Fold:
Amino acid sequence: MPRGNLITSESDIAITVDNAGDEDEVSSCYEEHEWGKNRVKGREKEREKKKRGNARKKGASRAGRGDEELEERAERGEKGRRRRKRDNHDGKGRERDEEEQAEEKSGRAAKNKKNLKNERTRKMEQEERDTEEGDAKRKKKNESAKREEKKEDGGKRAVKEKANAVKTKKHKKKVETSSEQESSEEEDVEEEEEEEKEKELRPESLSPEELEKLKEAVDEKKKLIQTLRGKPWPMKKKLSTLRESQEFLEKYEGALGKGKGRRLYAYKVMMTKKWMKFQRDFENFKTACIPWEMKIKEIESHFGSSVASYFIFLRWMYGINMILFGLTFGLVMVPEALMGRPYGSMPRKTVPRADEASAMDFAVLWDFGGYAQYSVLFYGYYNNQRAIGWLKFRMPLSYFLVGVGTVAYSYMVVIRTMARNANESGGGDDNSFNFSWKMFTSWDYLIGNPETADNKFASITTSFKEAILEEQESRKDDNIHLTRFLRVLANFLVMCCLAGSGYLIYFVVRRSQKFALDGLDNHSWWERNEVNMVMSLLGMFCPMLFDVISTLENYHPRIALQWQLGRIFALFLGNLYTFIIALMDEINLKRKEEEIVKFNMTVWEASLYNGTVPENSTAPPVTIHPADVPRGPCWETMVGQEFVRLIISDTMTTYITLLIGDFLRAVLVRFLNYCWCWDLEAGFPSYSEFDVSGNVLGLIFNQGMIWMGAFYAPCLPALNVLRLHVSMYLQCWAVMCCNVPQERVFKASGSNNFYMAMLLVILFLSTLPAIYTIVTIPPSFDCGPFSGKSRMFDVIQETLESDFPAWFSKVFSYASNPGLVLPFLLLMVLAIYYLQSTSKSFKEANVELKKKLQMQNEENKKKSKRAALKAAMDLEEARKAMTQAAEQQSNNNASPQAQKDGGENRSSSQRLHHGKNGRNATPLLTDQEGQLPATRAPVPRTYHHGNHGAPGYLPGIPRQTEARVHRAPSLQRH
Amino acid sequence: MVSPAIALAFLPLVVTLIIRYRYYFVLFYRAFLVRVWQDCATGLSREERAFQYVLTNATPGDPDSILEAFDQWCSKVEFISNIGPKKGKILDRLLMEQSPMTVLELGAHCGYSAVRMARCLPLGARLYSVEMDQRNATIAEKVIRLAGFDDDTVRGPSLKMHCTVDFVFMDHWKKCYLPDLQLLEGSGLLGKGSMILADNVLFPGAPNFLRYVRKSGLYEWRIHQATLEYIRGIRDGMAELVYQGIK
Structure:
């Protein structure tokens, strides 16, 4: 293809339009000539010639065109015929338009002729194949045909102005043609394609009509794109059509401005496109910004949505912990570290002399003793100074409010999420249409892994089997006593297990207290970490035992899962509360110790002052190093330390189980399988499955511990953030690398709120002990932000008194008067009750409505079925009547012609039957005719062709009626 | 020194493992401990003991009674990895449906499956049986003769077979399933529509075999789920392959 010879005209959009319009016009002229039949016949020969030499022509025309855009288009046309097919429709539409116009504007005929002449000459050139020369010649001829300005905007505009009057007429027509086009789309495309080729070939002038048509076509395409979804085409066709239309639009949409505004319009269109693209990119960017989204999606595709739901839950938890961490870090730890008194300035901020030697040892630091204990990480380090630094930051108040705020925020978030989930679930009833639900909704469309898909498939089939079995079993009941006995037995075993684990923990905690009294250094690492170890181990192994026990019960797996979750929940809760109770004992011990220390302190101080200085100098002149000052046991720090240790050991156990239980096992199974006597992968050890419920529960309880301990150890949220972050990566990796998809892939959506409810319960249960300690136990006298106060919440009162104006505290004291608070509480309870009852009634109404809808649906179904039946019967009857009429006639005429007629539309056997019937029933015919009106009575129900039967009774025209009857069903369908 | 409390915390794990894998423990006890004990006590091999039991308890010439005696011995006295009555029913059904004229058995062991198959074969069909161990082979031969089948029906492997094999039953060393299958393919003994039935593909398991079958595309295959013979609670399966030939 002679690309080098292209005429170098401005590759402007205007020009493009020009040429495109030219094409259109030429083609339309052609069609005019073809359809209108008032053109010279010789043209047709030309046309055929053109068809034959299409490829050559294309090349030539391209050379002549000199417009890159158009050339591209032609190329594309060569490549993808499908696109042209699309264009064909436009062409067809235009054709018709043109056809109609043909009569109207004969004034344009001369111009068209010119056009055609030009076309002819061009064809001759094409045959010459010398593109360069042809180009030049064509130019010349163009000039001779007085169309030299065709390539410039101005000239075209002039033409447009000339034909303005015609345009207005065309506007009216547009509507009709578009509808015509719609219907013509499904018609045969073959011949149109040829015409289309021609159309594309002719790059001639553009008249306003053509512009108009182009506009129309663009509108058409837009409409097509919008309605494409509803078309009954195969997806392939849809896609290709869509692509074609979009290409078309892209190319020509910009061209549709008028004259001067065209460029602006093109620019505008381009900008909207850019903007849309930007928006889409931005959406993508936003998705990419969601942390771990891609990872979770990948896991979802491999393991189904239930495993993914765990990770989503983990991420959600991470977000909450981030906020808790921000609160404690920004409002408590950083201010204290920056503005509070530095380390070593006070006894509470100094490591005591006895511990100094080992304070930096790793073992001590790992236990959060030594320097870690005397740092911002724990409660005891904080000073009770009311305001610190140049900001006058109210440290104790901030500490208290952050403690309350974290809990309040957590409540808010959990409850809000629960409410949202409850809205989403929408309360579908599980009992009706069980099988339909299973049939149509059980596939998980996010699965992208063949193995998981296989598993899902298997699980669906098993669920079907189970459901069928269930249906069968719900009717008959087998040995109910045995199952009952087994269930009771299972629960008894579980209770024993729970009690045993609870007792073990209690025993261990008591023992650890004894060790603590003896001094930790005398005992081994195992003994010192006994509590955490035992708790973690029990938390790990008991669920397995429960799982084994639950096979006794023979529950449906969904119910079994809930029982299992409930039992694990009870176990964890029992362990946690045993731990807390033991901790309470320890707190009491510490408080007794504190009393003694307090007494000793006074003695010590007295001795100090007495021994060194005369009594009258009150200021302590002797500077005792703060490390030497005796101090109380500070139970708050102890509690914080315990929780931190618990979290650390919990985390460690989780990770180690992950590494050993999953990774090591997977490695062993994978590589020992080459030299083992049975199949390790499919048989006994196998790969592990991801235990969603256990992991979720672990997460929930971990969070509960955070909530419980965060008040006494501000570092806990930070630790938890770290832990969650690591476990996100570690678990993602472990799942992808060493787990296999579950055999029963559960749908996640159902249990989401179940987990949330658990979280809420845990939140409540974990804030309970924290609140109890805050409210009832007086803080230590020499450590923490509340030291010296009788209760921790006194800090609020103090702030009210000293930092707020007097009237405010007065108002507050009035407001906190029980006489005001009680009615307020009562009002709240009433409001809650009211809201709940209204929501309940709404729910009932919803259910009622749903039922009604169902009923109506069924009714409609029945009705339509009945109608269809009736229509069919009517039809049958009408047909019978018709045949009888025909037969009668044939009998009357006694000619074979009638029989032939009947044979055209009906099977011969039927005809035979009717024929026989008719022949036999000739004497009855009068009777039949008498009956006919009665049988016909229902026919008008079908409305569409109420009178179609009428001619059937005229014995003269049997064929016509037959044809009508046969067409009737299709009409009805439309 | 690990404290007793920590050791106690492992108790649930131990209990769980015991309960979950009890069938495997039973299998280990019956198939290994009892066998070793009996070998030492009687000086006879397991197969010989089984044959003695069959001799004393079964009616000669009656295959059904011999099979029943075997089942009795395997489930009550000791354990021998025969095909067993439940999976045997599947085998019977397949043989009845196929009615093959030439059957090849790999791994006769003590003749249980040979008797079982010979009993279901149509008239004029031949069963070729292969056993690796000499002592087991003699016992198998004795059992087969005891059941009343002669050389016309059941033959040793020494004969060179020229026709294609209609039915192959594999129940020998699980590692050999795959190489033997490939050998069969290579030798051209398999014709279109030949059926291959492989026992114990899930529990002792022949993963490579299954993987090959899945991938090769030469076979139409399915797995009959069942439990291990004579032991409840261990899942096992038989793979049924139909050779499609090279397309």
